[in-house]
Amino acid sequence: MNQASSPQFVVTDRVREALAVSLRGCDELIPQEEWVKKLAKSEATGTPLRIKLGLDPTAPDIHIGHTVVLNKMRQLQDLGHTVIFLIGDFTSMIGDPSGRNSTRPPLTAEQIKVNAETYRAQADKILDPTKTELRYNSEWSDPLGARGMIQLASRYTVARMMERNDFHDRFKAGTPIAVHEFLYPLMQGYDSVALKSDLELGGTDQKFNLLMGRTLQAEYGQEPQCILTMPLLEGLDGVEKMSKSKNNYIGISEDANTMFAKVLSISDVLMWKWFTLLSFKSEAEIAALKAEVDGGRNPKDAKVALAKEITARFHSAAAADAAEQDFINRSKGGIPDQIDDLSVELGEGALLGIGVLLKMARLAASTSEANRLIDGGGVRIDSNVVSDKGLKLGAGTYVLQVGKRKFARVTLG
């Protein structure tokens, strides 16, 4: 479609506001001038834009780092646009090579089905499910067939495919690249053709795949989509991107108390980036809060507000309030209202070693780990620090504590 011949639409204040929402926290908006034209046309005609996010269900659960793009989708959804949550059940069987230095093993159909159902439930915690178009790319990818796949592949060159960094680096290093890996960006791009997408979102590592959608839409005579990339969220350590493998993550299915406490553990500097990428507060509200902190207000107040907002989103406002109180109790050396109970029957006069007991209470993975925790001063019994790894306990009820967040009430009988 020739955009130059299309009518010009007025850029109103509402369009400018929508652009500001789009740009908030984003890494790149490509091309921005085309997005402004799409917003202006939508405003003038009353036709919502189609905004797409595709996720491959490669794991059964997601952490809040994954929700950065979902948050952006919700912001655009609240402006009245149509958001499409696309589950890549077909592309998961190929395996996304993005950022890989080796071939990614594809998932089985059974794994994909289980993970996809979990993804949908988790996405509903952020997107408005009544206003979200849920799609699976097997809808149009399976019917494409071998003939359609060959015709699709004819629309892109090997030379352009090799411009992709991970393919280029692997080829240069002599690392194998399987032919089916070239199909992944093609199929992701074809998703945009099938859905007639106006905007596609993704992480910065997805830029090549997102641009493929623009190329193929032009090939099929459609107005090319714009693309919006969001930065990868740093984890709890403030250094590495959030990842389960680095244990610096917050799972969105974690309990409220743990979620709240983990948010409070981030640095004062990282907190403001999290506000931008994870909070639904307006930029004006965040700027006002930051000005108060710069003016002398305790930054912990702002962090508590962020922790409560995130916890309430995935649980409830009441759960967030309870988590805040639980954190206060712990910080004062108090015991949480709800902790695990364990009863162990002992023979008359028998004693049980502290290391074994910590393992039985699931406060340590092994007795050797329990010993390391004791050496580090991280174990308490009834609020008293344990320093003796040889400590043995007899009949009675004890409150065991490891670190700031792990408790168990143990009754030895």
UniProtKB/TrEMBL annotation:
<dbReference type="InterPro" id="IPR014729">
    <property type="entry name" value="Rossmann-like_a/b/a_fold"/>
</dbReference>
<feature type="short sequence motif" description="'KMSKS' region">
    <location>
        <begin position="241"/>
        <end position="245"/>
    </location>
</feature>
<keyword id="KW-0648">Protein biosynthesis</keyword>
<keyword id="KW-0694">RNA-binding</keyword>
<dbReference type="GO" id="GO:0006437">
    <property type="term" value="P:tyrosyl-tRNA aminoacylation"/>
</dbReference>
<dbReference type="InterPro" id="IPR002942">
    <property type="entry name" value="S4_RNA-bd"/>
</dbReference>
<comment type="function">
    <text>Catalyzes the attachment of tyrosine to tRNA(Tyr) in a two-step reaction: tyrosine is first activated by ATP to form Tyr-AMP and then transferred to the acceptor end of tRNA(Tyr).</text>
</comment>
<feature type="domain" description="RNA-binding S4">
    <location>
        <begin position="357"/>
        <end position="396"/>
    </location>
</feature>
<comment type="similarity">
    <text>Belongs to the class-I aminoacyl-tRNA synthetase family. TyrS type 2 subfamily.</text>
</comment>
<protein>
    <recommendedName>
        <fullName>Tyrosine--tRNA ligase</fullName>
        <ecNumber>6.1.1.1</ecNumber>
    </recommendedName>
</protein>
<dbReference type="InterPro" id="IPR002305">
    <property type="entry name" value="aa-tRNA-synth_Ic"/>
</dbReference>
<dbReference type="InterPro" id="IPR036986">
    <property type="entry name" value="S4_RNA-bd_sf"/>
</dbReference>
<feature type="binding site">
    <location>
        <position position="244"/>
    </location>
    <ligand>
        <name>ATP</name>
    </ligand>
</feature>
<keyword id="KW-0067">ATP-binding</keyword>
<dbReference type="InterPro" id="IPR024108">
    <property type="entry name" value="Tyr-tRNA-ligase_bac_2"/>
</dbReference>
<comment type="subunit">
    <text>Homodimer.</text>
</comment>
<dbReference type="Pfam" id="PF00579">
    <property type="entry name" value="tRNA-synt_1b"/>
</dbReference>
<dbReference type="InterPro" id="IPR024088">
    <property type="entry name" value="Tyr-tRNA-ligase_bac-type"/>
</dbReference>
<dbReference type="InterPro" id="IPR002307">
    <property type="entry name" value="Tyr-tRNA-ligase"/>
</dbReference>
<dbReference type="Pfam" id="PF01479">
    <property type="entry name" value="S4"/>
</dbReference>
<dbReference type="GO" id="GO:0003723">
    <property type="term" value="F:RNA binding"/>
</dbReference>
<keyword id="KW-0436">Ligase</keyword>
<dbReference type="InterPro" id="IPR001412">
    <property type="entry name" value="aa-tRNA-synth_I_CS"/>
</dbReference>
<dbReference type="GO" id="GO:0005829">
    <property type="term" value="C:cytosol"/>
</dbReference>
<feature type="short sequence motif" description="'HIGH' region">
    <location>
        <begin position="57"/>
        <end position="66"/>
    </location>
</feature>
<dbReference type="GO" id="GO:0005524">
    <property type="term" value="F:ATP binding"/>
</dbReference>
<keyword id="KW-0547">Nucleotide-binding</keyword>
<keyword id="KW-0963">Cytoplasm</keyword>
<keyword id="KW-0030">Aminoacyl-tRNA synthetase</keyword>
<dbReference type="GO" id="GO:0004831">
    <property type="term" value="F:tyrosine-tRNA ligase activity"/>
</dbReference>
